[in-house]
Amino acid sequence: MNISRFFGATNREAMRQVRLALGPDALIISNKRVNGGVEILATDQTSLPDGGSAAASAQPSPPPMAAIRPAAPRAGTEHAAAAPGVDLMDAIGELKGSLETRIDELLWGSQLRRSPQAVMLFQNLLRSGFSTALLRAMLKRMPEQAAARAAFQWARNELIGHLPVLQSEDALWQPGLALALVGPTGVGKTTTVAKLAARCVRRSGPGSLVLLTTDTYRIGAHEQLKIYGQMLRVPVHVVQDVHEMRRIMQTVRPDQTLLIDNVGISQRDRYIHEQAALLAGAGRTVERLLVLNAVSHGDTLDEVARSYAGDGGTPLRGCIISKIDEASRLGPALDTAIRYRLPIHYVSNGQKVPENLLFLSASDLVDRALAPAQSNRTLYAPSEADLAALLSMTQPADNPAAAAERRRQQVLLPQLLTGSAHGEALGMGQLQAAVALQDEDPVLSEAYDLWRSRAAGNLPPAAEAIEHLRRIAHGGLEESQPAVVVHARLPLDWPGRRGTWSGAAWFDGQGRPLAAATQQVGLADGWHTPQGAWFLPPGRVQAGGSVSPEGGRPETPRIDRLSAPSAADALLAQIEAESGDGANTVCHVFDGGSQVLLRALSARGSCWLAAAGSRARVYLDDEPAVLSAAAQTLMYQPLDAQTFWPLLSAAGLEEIRPAWWAAVGLAELRSRGEPALPVRLFSLRAVDPRDGRLLKVWHALAGMTVDPDPGRIAQALILRQECHAAWRQAVPLLAESGREPLADRAVFAAQMGLAAWRLTQDPALAPAAQVVARMLGTERLSPRHAHAGLLKLYALKELLAN
Length: 802
Description:
The chain has 25 helices and 26 strands. The strands form 4 sheets. It has a 13-stranded mixed beta sheet, with helices on both faces. An 8-stranded mixed beta sheet has the order 6-5-7-4-8-9-10-11, sandwiched between helices.
C-alpha cells in the first residue's frame, strides 16, 4: 500500500489536495491537526490487494470519513447536486476544527482571567516575537499563583527545556559527513557554508573537506564559493543535475566532509521539490540544514519551515539561524525551531568569515531572545491597554475542594513552620508574601534556580552560569547607570587542602547586589577557572608549581610547565572579563594591588578603587608619606545619612549608627624608572555620635577616572567589605564534596552568599527575613544564620508550590 501525506492550512485545503492527487476513490487513513495546519494520510483504493478491493465493494456503503466522491457535477447533468460524501466530510471536518478551536479559546481566556501574571507574561513574550500558538501551549501549564519574576523564570526554563539545540559540535563533525544548506534566497547560505568550511579545516585540515554548489542561477554565486575555497585550499565543484552530482560524489573519499551550497528557492516555488530530489538522489546520504533568517517575520519563517519540511526530501536535520545581528527580535526563529523540532546548530551574527558563527547553548539563545529590546516602542505587540480592553479581569467561582484545602493549609502550615516561644504563629499570607519577595528579587531567585539545579544533579557549567548571571546584572542596570564590580579574595583552609578563592560580583549605582560573576579557585594541587581546571602532575606539587590541563593532552611540552597565575594576574583576568559592554561605567573595587597592576589599569583608562593599609606609601607634595599620615592633611566632610541606605547595617556596626566622615585628595605613586602616577587618596571614618570616639578607619587609592564624590567612593569601599563578609559565609558550600567541577560549585556558592547577605541587609526583604527568622526559632535573622535561613526560605517555596 502506498500512503501519501497531505498538508493544508485548513481541513478543506488538505482534502482538496487529496482529491487532486488521488481522485474520488481515495481512502483516508488519518486526519489530525499539527503545527500550522491539518495533516492527512491517504491512499488510493487501487493500491489495495484484490481481496481488499472486493471486500470494500461488497459493503453496501463506504464507511463514514473513508470514501471521498467528486464534488463536480455528473456527466450530462448541468445542475446536479454535489455528492453527499464530500459535503459530509467537509462539514464534519470543519465542525470538529471549529469546536476544538472554540473550546481551546474558552479555556485559554479563562486562564488569563484567573492569572494576571499570565497576561503580563503573554504580552512580554509576544513582544519578544514568540507566536500565540506556542505561548498558548506553554502558558496553559504555568502555575497560577506564581509572582511576576517567578512566572518569567518558569517561562524561561520551559523555553530552554523545549528548545532543540545541537548537543556538541563533535556530534556534527563526524568523518564522512555530507551536509547541505537549504533555504530561501538571501538568507546567507553561501557565507555560512564558508564559515562552516573554516571550522572544518581548523578541526581536521584542508584535505578533509570538499565544497560543492548547485547555485548556477545567481551571477557570481559559485565564483564567490570558489574564492573561499582558494583561501582555505579546498576543492570546489559546481553541479547542474543529479548525474553530475553522483559523479562528483564518487570522487569524494568516505572519510572526507562534503559541504553543499544550494541555490536559494522561495518556499512557494515548485522547484523546491526538484532541489530536494537532487539531494536525495546524490548516491550518498546528505544531511540538510535549513537556514532561517532571523530578520524575517514569524509567519514567513513558519511558511519556510513548513515548505522545506514537506518538500519530499530527506528529513531536515536541524537549522542554522542567520543574521541575528540585524534582527530586532530572536523569538520568531526560536519559536519556529521549537514547533518544527529543528535543532539549532549555529547562529550567524555578521558577515565576517570565519568568526561570525556562534555555537550557543539553549540558555544562551533564550536569554538573548528575552533580553530587553533597545527600543521601548512596541508597534507589533499588544500593549497593556490593549490586553486590558480585551480581557475582563474577573475571578471565576472557586472550587470548593481546593478552597477547603487552602483553608486547611492556612491553619496548619504557619503553626508548623513559624511557632515562636510565645505560642504565636505567622499567618499564611505572610508566608506567601515572603516567597513572593524571594521570587521578585533577582539575586535570591537566581540563587534559587542554581540551588534547584544542584539538587537535581545538573548544576550548569561555570562559564554558562556566569554568562547568564552577567546578563542578569546588565539587565538590572539602567542605561548609563554606573556599576560597581567588587573583586574579593578569600583564604581557604580545608582539611588537607589550602588555597584561595577569588571572585567578582556586580552591584548597581545604589549599592544593591545584582549577581555573582567570574570565580577562580586556587589550591595546592591546581587552579580552577570557568574555562577549565589545571592540575599539578604527580610529584610536582610545590608552592606556585607547575600545572597541566585537566584531562587534556599537552599540545607542547610547555603545557606541563604552565604556572598557576599570581594574585595580580588572576585579578587582572577578572577585571578584563568584567569590564562591561561600554553602556555603563564600571568601577572595579579590590584589595591592595601592586604598582604594576595599578599602572596597567590606569593606562587602559579603567576605573579602579583599591583598599589600602595605613602603612602604604604615597607622595604628597613631592614628599613621601604613609597613608595614615597623608590622610591627616585632608579636609573631612560629613556624609549624607542615606549614603549606605540599601544596608540595614554597614561594616558590622549593628548596635551603633555611626556618623560618617570622608575626605578626598590627590597624591602620587612613584617607582624607579617610571613616571609619577597621579591617584586619588581617600579616607573614611566611622565616628560614634554619642562621644566622638573613632570606631573604624578605611584608606583607599583610586584612579583619576573615579568619580571624586566622597559618598560614592565610601559606598564602593564598604561594599568591598560586605562582599567579603557574604562570601565568608558561603565558604562551607564551596568545601562541600560533590561530583561537579570546583569552578561550577564556586559560582553556586558565590550567588548563594550574595543572596544570604542580601536577605539580611536589604530593607525591602525585611518581611521575608522575619519569616525566615521565625522558622529558625528566633525573632531576628543574624548574618551568621543567613545561609541556613535562605535554605529554609527555598524549602518553604517548594512546599507552597506543591
